[in-house]
Design brief:
This protein has helices at 2-14, 16-34, 42-74, 76-81, 87-116, 124-149, 154-175, 185-193, 205-226. The protein is mostly helical. It is globular, with a radius of gyration of 19 Å. It starts with a helix and ends in a 10-residue tail after the last helix.
Amino acid sequence: MIAVLLIAGNLVREQRWPTLFLVLWSGVVALAFTWGEEELIQNDFVFLLGQEALYAVAFATFVAAFSVHNERRSRRILAVLSKAVERRQYLAGMLLGVLLCCAAYCVSIGLSSLWIARNMDVPGWQFIVLTAVLLMTCAVAAAIALFFATFLDPLPATAATALVIAAPAALERMLGGAWANAIPVYSLSASAMRFSYDPAWSPGWGGVAVAVVETVVFWLAASWVFERRDIAMAVE
């Protein structure tokens, strides 16, 4: 467990500046959004929240897709795995690091949303649920990207992740049914975009449960593939 935490901490350290930028971005946008406004424009707020959700998913996907490649290129991965660290532990640390970075951004989104709606009678738990939904959306997207990153270069891994995320939504549009929940990144993102001040708002708990399970499944699949890959990389 200590090895996993150390690997995660190292990734957080490497990604501290883009993470800090996103955290500050959500705060600055919230201040700009409420500056001089006497009444909240709900449609604008929902649009803003949708943008923030997409940024969070894109951030999780890119960081996860590039993480393994960057470690191989720096040859740090060889030093880490030579210290009796299993490859599944290594990927668990990478995934945890991505989630910690995303958690900082998702919490900042939740707090900035709470600030925007501070004068409204909105239950505080809705913002906690919103933050958790965004984080689970990032988790499953990062796990998928990490899976592809074990055998593809970063850009193809990112493209493959985007296809896997988009495919269920496309199937649902063409065939109907609940295809979007097969890979619930789109459905959970859409749920966050539909966040409203209605106490009856629900994120769709079925999609959240599927996201938890699939995050574990893709991590296990990534570990299975990664254990069979040659991680050595030619020095450029």
